Amino acid sequence: MRIVCPFCGERELGEFTYLGDAKPQRPAADAGEDAVYDYVYLRDNIAGPMSEHWYHGGGCRAWLKVTRNTLTHEISAVEPAAGAGAAKVGV
Amino acid sequence: MRGDQANRLNYGGLIDRSTALNFRFDGKTLFGFKGDTLASALVANGVKLVGRSFKYHRPRGILTAGSEEPNALVELRSGARREPNTKATTAELYEGLEAASQNRWPSLNFDVMSVNQLFAPIFVAGFYYKTFMWPAKFWEAIYEPAIRRAAGLGRAAQVSDPDHYDKAWAHCDVVIAGSGPAGLAAALAAARCGARVILCEEDFVLGGRLFADGGMIDGLPAAEWVARAVAELTAMPDVRIMTRTTLFGVYDGGTYGAIERVNDHLPVPPEHQVRQRLWRIVAKRCVVAAGAIERPIVFADNDTPGVMMASAMRSYINRYAATPARRIALFTNNEDGWRTAETAIAAGLQVAAVIDARPDISPAHRSLASKSGFPVLHGAVAGINGGKGGVRKISVSLAGGARAEVEADGLAVSGGWNPAVGLTSYHRGRPKWRDDIAAFVPDGAPPGMVAAGAANGAFGLGACLREGFEAGAAAARDAGHSGNIGSMPVADDEAFSITPLWHVAGKGKAFVDQQHDVTASDVELAQREGFQSVEHLKRYTTLGMATDQGKTSNVAGLAIMAAVSGKSIPETGTTIYRPPYVPVAIGAFAGHHRDENFHATRLTPSHHWAAEQGAVFVDTGLWKRAQWYPRAGEKDWLESVTREVKAVRGGVGFCDVSTLGKIDVHGPDAGTFLDRVYINAFSSLAVGKARYGLMLREDGIVYDDGTTSRLAEDHYFLTTTTAKAGLVMQHLEFCRQVLFPELDVQLTSVSDQWAQFSIAGPKTRDLLKEIVDPAEDLSNEGFPFMGAREVGLRGGIKARLFRISFSGEMAFEISVPARYGEAMARNLMIAGKPFGITPYGTEALGVMRIEKGHVAGPELNGTTTAGDLGLGKMMSTKKDFIGRVMAGREALVAPNRQVVVGIKPTDKARRLRSGAHIIPKGETPGPGNDQGYVTSVCFSPVLDQWIGLGLVERGRERIGEIVRAHDPLRGEDYDVELCNSVFYDPDGGRQRG
Question: Are B768 and B778 spatial neighbours (Cβ–Cβ below 8 Å)?
Fold first, then answer.
């Protein structure tokens, strides 16, 4: 499998580490135990396009949001995580 | 010298008659020529019997001339290079080649186990499942060893492979599998367009079947056209031609696996060269021009030596000028088989008869028969009269019901052609059935791949060239190239007609899968016993599960299954196709990653100095760390380690701790960021101070620990454990980029940039004064416990100095740029000499941390909470942090959790062992009263006895209680006392002093 890193270009699977479903959002500090439990443990078992977190540890160390079809491994989109990339000078 | 080679023609073929090669088969010296395979050289020498079969030990000969060969498997080479199950049909001949036949004892001609044939009625499908059921314990002791001796293939070398293997990447626009007419035409078209092309050919010559089957292309004889095409391709800079290379698999994203047999054609690889190379080829497009495989017809005794595929016979005669027989009979159900009769006549061989299963044959063939004086029999081969000496007589059942006999010493068989649909089907593709050619053809392919020519069911030469050329041009276009494509090579298309015939009923064993000895009646039995699905058929009979993956047998097997179950062949379907297309040595997948190169090795900055000192190293992850420094006269590691500990506690010692993960955290929000990833606060840490920090996973379990120092308002220096260095970096980047992108903070891994040493012991400050710039104040006031700041060293180097202690002694850790690490170790030895400085390794480090009650890897084991480690009070209640909410779950704060506690045997002379289970006194050990276990142990020089840490239920409430340490693994059971985990200097006076 090959992933097009927005910073490095197309790279081989071995440079990346898979984390999992990118959909769950970390709850606010006061969201309560049930919300955190869902965030930590509950995952959909998606057959089809799925938004996933991948880490380009063998390259630029960016966390990426990769849309991958779990049935075909086809990758339709790769976006950097919100805080990935170089320092935001002057922002 | 050219030897006898009685079956060698004096003309023709792609062999070099001026280079005779001497080789040995089963100890007998024979000769062949350069350009031969082992199989063709055996054919030339009239060797018909080359092996015994897997189950019945039946005599077997050579069936094919390619990588689909089921029978002619040999042990190639000897000693450490002995390679079992090598196909004689693909092994190139070289001077001095040694090969031995397999699965026979004591000799190929006289094989004791061929008595198995007499018991053939019980060696049916499912035989093992049915026969060796009881008693169960007999299986390992008796049945399996006996079966393994009787059955099986070649013997592995049993010693380490002396050769090297390599792995490499290649990138191109178009990769082409196969260099027959379709592959060469595809390469020409793609390359002329300007595409970067890789052409993979598993054979050692380019041209595919053109050398066996001939033909005219663009008005030239096929061999001349091949030479011209190869010359054109070779001259193009962006074409890479890889012979001896099989494209064996297709993977996601246009990645292809190929195995290059770089030096298999030589006795021993030249110095500094690899034996094989595993390629990962990344290509935008792939053209599969892998051709087709001729399939046998299943009839009684069809495994007799001398029965050969018709196409293989043409290969031996035309390409290798070697004649498999003198008087050849041909059994065909299709037009193409007749070419073997034509070839045999052209080579001056006799054709005994053509047995054609079709009702009609062409006038041209009929006139060939009458001109050459051989009969054409309409019917089928019903049996063979022959044996290990080969075919003698062929019995034929004629279409009208009559019988006939044909005398011949060789039988060519053609049951039609199966396109090589492996590569196109590897992504769970299912090929589709085509009635007109009675074969499965690709039905689509993985993205970017297309089949052309015979691999796509186009068997005519003209069609192969046309499909290959068009596929090559399309592939180049899709890859963004549109150069001048030139003219398409042109040839006539031969007529192809086939009347499917899979199995001729008759007396005697009729083999479907010759490598696994699966017969037609095994397939029928499977059907009767309910194993009708092809996937069940495969596993029940082992059809197609041998090293040839059923290339010559799968389709016949499922066709017979279809017939007996009353279904059509497409209804019956095929099994799933899986890579690799040919066997690939595990060594090639490993490449150079074996022995000491199994993984990368990381050396600490002081490694070479430590090696000079005679340090014993231990592998910790990728690192080599000094474990202890033995001295002359010390009888074991314990004596060395005890000396090191005493030297530190009584004077001063140092240890390279550069393996710790080190991360610079910069930015105005660095403190806030650390507050969120650690359970304790860091935004409140004063500049110039260090603090121990603990990280949790989001599920509330401890993840990692380490000290983090604030070097400036917006700059922290964070350390991790050695084991988790990379993972913590990944985790922190996740927190920074994904969870908290609003924070202005940057992380830089500096693990490799800083050499870090722990300097510990009461004389540490005296030693440091010799190293550090005299202007730096190292007094307790000027540099208090948990102080951290940059200092100058004598000589002007800047260092980071941290007053932290893992040993419990007065201690500092000092960081210098990694390039000064070795010099630092040497200087510490010189400067420390007056103070008796002693280098210490990870064992002494471990002893002192256990004496001090510090937790480490065995306690931070992925099941413990901060509370379990006695660090629950560190959890801030004033802020959110990773793991905060889940850490509060009921079970994670339950009062009966197993928590860290000190453990020491009541008998001071007894050795404590980690892993021992803690059982209450007076109870019978068992899972119901298992209260925990010993995690870390050491011999404590301070206490002069073995001590340890353990995770014990309610441990901290039970200080002073005597419990049992139960160790069934070592057969030990003894009393231990639960005690305070801080054995040494519990009030911390020494480290603050």
Answer: yes
Judging contacts by C-beta atoms under 8 Å, the chain B residues touching residue A80 are 737
Please check whether residues B254 and B178 belong to one and the same domain: yes
**What CATH number does residue B68 fall under?**
3.10.20.440
CA–CA distance, B740 with B492 (Å, rounded to integer): 69
Phi-psi region of A38 (alpha: psi -120 to 50; beta: other; left: phi over 0): alpha
User: Into how many domains does chain B fold?
Assistant: 6
How close does chain A come to B426, measured CA to CA in Å?
A: 13
Reading the block at residue B812, the tokens are: 């500092």
Residues of B whose CB is below 8 A from A83: 736-738, 740-743
Q: Which residue of A has its CA nearest to B739?
A: A26
Cβ distance A2 to B734 less than 8 Å, yes or no, reads no
- ipTM entry: 0.97
Q: What are phi and psi of A65, to 5 degrees?
A: -105, 110
Closest CA to B800 of B891, B710, B699, B916: B710
Please indicate, yes or no, whether residues B702 and B729 belong to a single structural domain of this protein: yes
Residues B313 and B344 in one domain: yes
Q: What is the CATH number of the domain that holds B710?
A: 3.30.70.1400
B45 plus B61 within the same structural domain = yes
What is the structure's pLDDT at B103? Answer: 78
Pairwise CB contact (< 8 Å): A40 & B729: no
What's the topology of domain A2-22+32-80?
Folate-binding fold (3.30.2270)
Q: Which of A37, A41, A83 sits opposite B738 (nearest CB)?
A: A83
- Report pLDDT digits (tens) over B112-156: 777 667 666 666 676 666 655 566 666 666 666 666 666 567 888
Domain with B924, as residue range(s), is: 895-992
**Model confidence pLDDT, tens digit, residues B182-225:** 999 999 999 999 999 999 999 999 999 999 999 999 999 999 99
- State pLDDT tens for residues B40-97: 999 999 999 999 888 888 999 999 999 999 999 999 999 999 999 999 999 999 999 9
- Both B738 and B829 in one domain: the answer is no
Short-list B887, B677, B885, CA closest to A36: B885
Residues in A closer than 8 angstroms to B746, CB to CB, are: 87
Tokens linked to B173: 């626009």
Residue in chain A nearest B283 by alpha carbon = A2
Confidence of residue B506 (pLDDT cuts 50, 70, 90): confident
Would residue B599 count as lying in a domain?
Answer: no
User: Which chain B residue lies closest to A88 (C-alpha atoms)?
Assistant: B744
